[in-house]
Design goal:
By secondary structure, the protein is mostly helical. It contains 9 helices and no strands. It has a domain at 47-73 and 97-157. Helices cover 76% and strands 0% of the residues. The protein is globular, with a radius of gyration of 19 Å. The N and C termini lie far apart (39 Å).
């Protein structure tokens, strides 16, 4: 039985529309939040003030919300191959674990905020909501006391951004006419090596 070319093209167009929709709804917000997190952590300086720590917390929560949104509506990462999915899962787990927040605190952040999160909204919650204020206090104490862990989060958020960007851009290679080339040291094999994955 041979599938005619027209049906094959219709199937490909349908799959492309689904993939494009998933990229725009889930992966772009995830990549944006990971990039924002790595950049603001990089800019923090040796003695960050409360405003800088709040901005780091904002991008951390944005990443948490973006991945939670994806998990609620679809499944975990669906990337070009198993190694990419394993790297994404490991990096996200590391990023979530490094500040030392409990599962309950992480879950509370996921339930309290949604994809419409603004810096102002988070700032208001930190000032006026006791649970959010307590979580922020733990996050702030971590930032001030665990410099090596903060630097690790910066590196892993940058790797995560690079990995998700490479995967997103793989979908659009035909559009751009050229494959996405990650920064040196941030290829899938580099990230897998960093994570000690085969």
């Amino acid at each position: 039985m041979q599938i005619d070319l027209q049906k094959k093209l219709e199937a490909i167009q349908s799959m492309w529309k689904i993939a494009d929709s998933q990229m725009r709804e889930y992966y772009f917000p995830i990549a944006t939040a990971a990039r924002g997190l790595s950049q603001i952590v990089h800019q923090r300086g040796t003695s960050p003030n409360n405003s800088t720590i709040l901005r780091i917390f904002y991008w951390f929560v944005r990443l948490r919300v973006a991945t939670t949104t994806m998990l609620r509506k679809t499944t975990f990462f669906i990337l070009s191959n198993y190694l990419a999915e394993e790297c994404a899962t490991a990096l996200l787990s590391n990023i979530n674990a490094v500040p030392g927040l409990s599962e309950l605190e992480l879950s509370m952040l996921s339930l309290t905020f949604d994809s419409g999160l603004t810096f102002y909204g988070l700032s208001e919650k930190v000032q006026h909501d006791d649970q959010t204020k307590a979580i922020f206090a733990n996050f702030e104490a971590w930032i001030r006391s665990k410099t090596d862990d903060v630097e690790r989060m910066e590196k892993e958020a940058e790797y995560f951004f690079s990995l998700i960007s490479a995967e997103v851009n793989r979908l659009y290679e035909q559009w751009y006419g050229t494959p996405y080339v990650p920064k040196p040291g941030q290829s899938l094999s580099d990230i897998a090596k960093y994570l000690n994955l085969p």
